[in-house]
Each structure stands twice: as structure tokens, then as C-alpha cells.
Amino acid sequence: RDEDQLSVIAFDHEVSTVLPMTFMTMSGKELAKVAIGKLKERGQTNLSGGLLAALQQFLLMKPKPDETARIESVLLFTDGKANRGVTDGSTLARATRSVIGQIGRPLSVFTFGFGEEHEASVLQSIADAGNGLYYYVEDVESIPDSFCDCLGGLLSVTAQNISLELTGCNGHTLMKPLTTFSITSTEENSHTVQIPDIYSEESKDVLVNVSLCIKGEFDLDNPRPLPTEIAQFHLRYFDVQLCKLCTFEATACVEILPPMITAAELGMADVQERLTTADSDVSLQRIRQATNEALRDADRLAAVDNDRASANQRLDQCVEVINASPLAADPYAQHQIMTLVTAKAGISDQRSYKKWGAKQVRGLAHANEQQRSNTTRIFASDEQVAAMTSQGVSTPAAPASVSAPRLPSQLLRSSAACGSD
């Protein structure tokens, strides 16, 4: 669109602005094509210099009051390891957060690692700090798909500056939410989760364990469940389409049964059914959480301990756990299995691991944590898929759980779920 703007920064041993921020009119697009056509491979990789120069472009921009709904992003593409300037991933992440904080507007940083030489952990750290996503780009043919996937999402952003506050009530304790999103916790039993931009039709789920505190006395002559509020949720975000700030609130309530008395004995068949059937939404998110932990553990075992056998065993164990779930046949659970299969294919041998496996495992973990796609290929063979999924599905009794009701569906399909510990 004519009102869109683009800037191109080149970095090697030097950093240069080959195209300043330019409106994408017909003439602007021609300037961009010429600038990109002049890019050449040279020297080393001053990744930090290129990243900070790109962020500086936004720091210098002063949007007009009627431009509050603009979407601003940095797309960082590299095929090598950072070997000039700041090279440490954690330092680069801190610098990214700091400059975005100075900009004071919603801004995301997406990183693209091309080929075998880039350092996936550094690019992932930058993307995490910039509320973006890391893409592993295997070859030239994968470049258009990766960029189209990223740009397609940016064109469908529906909410920004999303803040979900969870507060425990009546002595019930909320544990730290199980998410990689930024969390601020207080001593007052409250946690605030900062959620990255949400695209149209996208879901973000946050799991939190609850430690229940039983207050009040039961009437043993006429035993009835004791209703109690366990948590309050406050969701705030900027609606890009409506161009306004929105706020929603919800409360989670449960009924605590008297000791040694079942819901069936109280003649409450509907309550008994809920107690013996785990909430499917919560259970599927627990499966995703288990997959995330397995991917991270496998990456650590293979990369740090150089123990691919234990890494593969860790992935196998997670597949067994999913297959033992009553929801194993659910498409979402099957997707988690496929994610683990793909990761295992990359760890199966040293050559595959060094060539693409390590990057693939980190990319899969990052995408699964963010609940967003960042890959266009599945590297696992049909034989590997069959071997991993032929272990059979068992259906043991589902554990009892306490689940908070979903926040209203109009909350951009974002949800917060509680499970009992």
C-alpha cells in the first residue's frame, strides 16, 4: 500500500542504510528493488549493528495521533554467526528490549536464520525479546514461504499491548503461569502476563496451577458443596480494527466438596461427571506444555551434554505420555506428536543434527510455545512417523481437575485456564 513504509539495512563488518524509511508508492517500490539488488555478500557479521540500526529507524519516527493502529516490525535476516559488535545472545536480547522500551510503541522483531552457519539460539533470544518469532530457513526455496508466512501474520494483527492479570482470591494461591511470555509477579498472589500481538483467528492459552485453600465449615448434617472464588482475570489490549483500548474481566469459581463425600452421594450427577472428566481445553494445553518441556530438554541434552540418545529417549517418553492420554486421537494432540517426530528426525544422527536438526528443534520449540507456525516443511520420513505413532493408544481414567471457565470468546479467543495441583 502507498502508506506502508520500508527501510533496508545491510550489515557485515560495516552497517549501512541502503534504503531509508520510504513510502511504498510505485516510485518507492522501484527504489527498494534497486537498493535490494545492490546487496552483496561481504566480510563478517555485525548482527548487533544491523539490528540496532533498524530499531533506530523507529526511534526516530514520530507517528501522528491518527496512526495509533500502525503495525511496526523488524525482519532480521542472516546466514552467519554474529562475530562483530555484540555477539552474546542474552546481551542482544536485553538491548532489544531496552530500545523497544524507548520507542514506546508496539513493535515486533522477527529473525530468519538461513542455512547451516547461523546461530539459532542467538536469533531466538532476539525474537523472544522482540515479541516475534524465529524462522529456520533451510535453503533458497524456503525464503519466500518464510517471509510470506511472517508478512501474512503482520497483515492480520487484531490486538496489541495485551496484558493478562491473574489474581488469586480467598486464600487460594496461583502458581507462576506456565508460559514463556513475559511475566511480572507480586507478593500479593498476582501475576501479569504480557502477550505478543495476536493475529486474526489466533489463540493464546496460558496455564496456571492453583493451590486450593479450604475455608469455612461444612454442615455434615446437610452436606453441600462449598462455592468459592479462586481467581480473577483482567485482560487489557488495544483493538487494532476498532482503534481503541479494551478491557475485560472474568472470575473463576469452584465448588469444594465436603471431605470423604462424593458428588454422586450428594445426588449431583452433573458435578460428578465434571470431576471425572478432565476439561479438554486444559488437557490439550497440558499436552502442549509437556511437548515444550520435552523439546527444551532434548535440545539441552543434544547440544550441551552431547547426548543424542538421551535426547531421543526424552522425546519418546513424551510421545508415550500423549498416546496414553484420553485425547491422544485429537488433531491437536496428533500435531504435538508430529512436532516431536520432526524433532527426533533432526537428532537421530550427528550429521543431521549439525546440518539442520539443532535449528529445527529450537524453531519447533519456539513456535509451539508461541502457538504460531514458523515452518513450511516436515523433515521426518514416513517411516519415522509410523515408528513413533504405532505404539498404540491407551485410555486410562482421566484425573480429576479443577478448571476455570474460559474468558469470554470475544476476548480475541485468548484464554486462561486453571488446573489443580
Characterise this structure:
Helices cover 38% and strands 24% of the residues. It has eleven helices and 14 strands. Strands 6, 8, 9, 10, 12 and 13 form a six-stranded antiparallel sheet that branches. Helix 8 runs antiparallel to helix 9. The longest helix is centred in the C-terminal third of the chain and has 24 residues. The radius of gyration is 24 Å and the shape is globular.
Care to give the gist of this entry?
This protein is about 40% helix and about 25% strand. It is built from eleven helices and 14 strands. Strands 6, 8, 9, 10, 12 and 13 form a six-stranded antiparallel β-sheet that branches. A three-stranded parallel β-sheet has the order 3-4-5, with helices on both faces. Strands 7-11-14 form a three-stranded mixed β-sheet.
Give short descriptive properties of this protein.
421 residues; alpha+beta; three-stranded parallel beta sheet
Straight-line distance between termini: 51 Å
Largest sheet: 6 strands, antiparallel
In total, the number of strands is 14
Oligomer: single chain
Beta-strand content: 15-25%
The portion of residues assigned to helices is 25-40%
Give the overall average pLDDT: 81
**Helix-strand makeup class:** alpha+beta
Global Rg: 24 Å
What is the number of helices? 11
Label the overall shape: globular
Q: Name the helix and strand elements from N-terminus to C-terminus, one letter apiece.
A: EEHHEHEHEHEEEEEEEEHHHHHHE
Unreliable spans are 390-421
